[in-house]
Design goal:
Helix content is 37%, strand content 30%. By secondary structure, it is α+β, with helices and mostly antiparallel strands. Strand 4, helix 3 and strand 5 form a beta-alpha-beta unit. Helix 3 crosses helix 4. The longest helix has 15 residues. The chain is globular, with a radius of gyration of 19 Å. Pfam families: Acetyltransf_1. This is GNAT family N-acetyltransferase. InterPro entries: Acyl_CoA_acyltransferase (IPR016181), GNAT_dom (IPR000182).
């Protein structure tokens, strides 16, 4: 069958078209589903790129979502031989729109095949931005927790949160934020987000984590960050375990992404109760 790509301007129409396809693997597809919900609610992201891939019979075989300047998120269920067709169709569509793709985020095998087809077509090079694993949790194990407590940041913590956001983006290899961008993001998070928490020890914030990108039954834990002076003291475990417990009061499960090159964080999450569901790849196009 011939694959066809369709670009959508109406988020509601796109949602109805691709949602049944994505929800079949809710935990694995937490990123595209979470992005769809955020776009649909109007809480974030202007002018997103929304593209479906379908067979001649109209059945959905894939979805692409991009929120510039971030990488293109893709979910594809196609044969190996169809990646070159997808790359060609995608290139035509993006060229007509004047859109450049900075990279891809997808399930690992699919990301590798799409990147290879894309670079063969475009004559470009690529690099691995992050080798990732997606985890899922439906209960929190009993683990040893250091002295301290969960707190929600407020205006007093604005400068601290802004600094931590900047450091987080640098250390995780995503697009670094300027001081003004980080401050704006911190202001928005404190004012509008319900699931942003610090772990406080001896009256001082020492680690943070955030719940965001909800799906029908789950929510993603992200922005897990501990400044270097406070690492290897159990604070990251404490804030993630505490936040995850709170989230499970409202959701059936939590998900999170990890960097496979950081064995410490992967062990921390598994000790808490997170179980691997699939591997993912962030690829940067050069």
């Amino acid at each position: 069958m011939t694959l066809k790509l369709t670009k959508y301007k109406d988020i509601n129409e796109f949602y109805k078209r691709v949602y049944p396809f994505l929800i079949k693997k809710e935990a694995e597809n937490n990123l595209p589903l979470g992005l769809l919900n955020s776009i649909k609610s109007g809480s974030r992201y202007n002018n997103p790129l929304l593209v479906s891939a379908e067979n001649e019979d109209g059945s959905i075989k894939g979805a692409f979502i991009m929120t510039p300047p971030h990488n293109l998120v893709s979910v594809l269920q196609i044969n190996d031989g169809e990646y070159s067709t997808i790359a060609q169709e995608l290139n035509t569509l993006l060229s007509e729109e004047g859109i450049e793709v900075p990279g891809f985020v997808s399930e690992k095998v699919s990301a590798e095949k799409l990147t290879q087809a894309w670079c063969n077509l475009k004559g470009c090079e690529h690099e691995i931005g992050m080798d990732q694993r997606i985890y899922k949790l439906d209960h929190v194990n009993e683990i040893e927790i250091p002295e301290g407590k969960l707190i929600q940041p407020d205006e007093r913590h604005l400068t601290l949160l802004s600094d931590w956001i900047k450091c987080f983006t640098v250390e995780t290899g995503v697009r670094p934020l300027t001081e003004s961008e980080a401050l704006e993001r911190a202001e928005d998070m404190i004012a509008n987000e319900n699931y942003l928490y610090f772990w406080e020890a001896d009256g001082e914030p020492v680690s943070m984590a955030r719940g965001g990108r909800w799906t029908d039954n789950g929510i993603t834990v992200n922005f897990v960050y501990t400044p270097k002076p406070f690492r290897k003291k159990g604070y990251a475990s404490a804030v993630v375990a505490g936040l995850s417990s709170k989230l499970l009061e409202e959701y059936k499960f939590c998900t999170l992404y990890t960097d496979l090159e950081n064995p410490t964080s992967n062990k921390i999450y598994m000790d808490i109760g997170y179980v691997p569901v699939c591997d993912s790849l962030m690829v940067n196009i050069k």
